[in-house]
TrEMBL record:
InterPro entries: ADP-Glc_PPase, ADP_Glu_pyroP_CS, GlgC_bac, GlmU/GlgC-like_hexapep, NTP_transferase_dom, Nucleotide-diphossugar_trans, Trimer_LpxA-like_sf. This is Glucose-1-phosphate adenylyltransferase. NCBIfam families: glgC, PRK00725.1, PRK00844.1. SUPFAM superfamilies: Nucleotide-diphospho-sugar transferases, Trimeric LpxA-like enzymes. Belongs to the bacterial/plant glucose-1-phosphate adenylyltransferase family. Residues 295-398 form the Glucose-1-phosphate adenylyltransferase/Bifunctional protein GlmU-like C-terminal hexapeptide domain. PANTHER family: GLUCOSE-1-PHOSPHATE ADENYLYLTRANSFERASE (PTHR43523:SF2), GLUCOSE-1-PHOSPHATE ADENYLYLTRANSFERASE-RELATED (PTHR43523).
Amino acid sequence: MKDTLGVLLAGGAGERLFPLTRDRAKPAVPFAGQYRIIDSTLSNCINSDLRRVYILTQYKALSLNRHIREGWGTVVANELGEFIEILPPMQRVSKNWYTGTADAVYQNIYSIGSEEPKYVIILSGDHIYKMNYGRMLAQHKDSGAEVTLATLPISPDEVSAFGVVEIAHNGDVTGFVEKPKETNIRSPFTPDMVDVSMGIYIFNTDVLIPELLKDAENPDSKHDFGHDILPKLLGRFKVQAFNFVDENKTKALYWRDVGTLEAYYEANMDVAGVSPTFNLYDKSWPMRTRPYQYPPAKFVFGEPGRTGMAINSIVCSGSIVSGAVVRNSVVSHDVRVNSYADVDSSIVFSHVNIGRHCRIRHAILDRDVHIPDGTVIGYDPNEDKKNYFVSASGITVVTRDYSVYENPVSPDFLQQREVW
């Protein structure tokens, strides 16, 4: 990895995670209580010994920038030329914001060139998975490839959300179609599945830079790797596929795009379960994050009907479960759950206070929300819709703006909610 540079794309608006992304970037959305979504990819970088990483940010990046600065700046050794550095849009080669994944990398072409890497790994900060990028780089070098794509087998019914990769038996990529409605292409390794791109690419730098320059000059391009760059490489360069090797050490490959409320909710419920698919406790592949200086979690009172306890749940530091019951839930830092409350199958962000006698289930409570005594959430979707955001599948999301007991919800904002 000494001659390799990582470029992590973290500038997406994350509309499908609204309202959690209304005030924060998607990679900054909390995950599993104490982490942020971007921590998965950054942990993969460190565990793979990739220690020169640019993070390209754009929308609503304040909390993301703070998280990187306070949590990841000390992980690498700056005196050895290592860095994890944020690059916002600087309009150095364009007057626009990033218009696509390829344009984001192109706009930072001078920063990339100044590091003089032989290889560039393009990554995304939107996914939860464990992967050793060193394995992929080793195959890239050994095969003599000029470009390598990481691929994952999926069901043919899911191809409309992915870039479909056609692979020869020797691993060469012979075709690429971005998000087709359907496809007859099948994997040569798993005949009933389709190989799709994971959005992870390794380029020889002397291939990447000219292709980005050429794409930037094309007025008809969407300036996107999947739509434009990758299909045009085929037949001109040696493009290889790297079959995803999961460091999670489970039977099923674990790679999750937590870009919708439903996918995000299910991924959090998984890590809170008795036997989670995604293992946070594997010391051989640790998941790192920003350290928080909170006291230990505490559970108090043991009276009949007023016992502080958490069952099949994650409860992070600084939280107090005071005579309440938390089941099948993820509770972040500095949360107070007061007496006689019942929280079930929910995600609670940091700095939340849940009042006495509250009943909450199948909900996401955003940070700094204060739930008054006796509030019921998640039991009547029609009633919840009057005050909160309710997804199509029935997940109730409570934010400060949707909370009528704190701030009245304007008709304009309710109309915006219906759009999403």
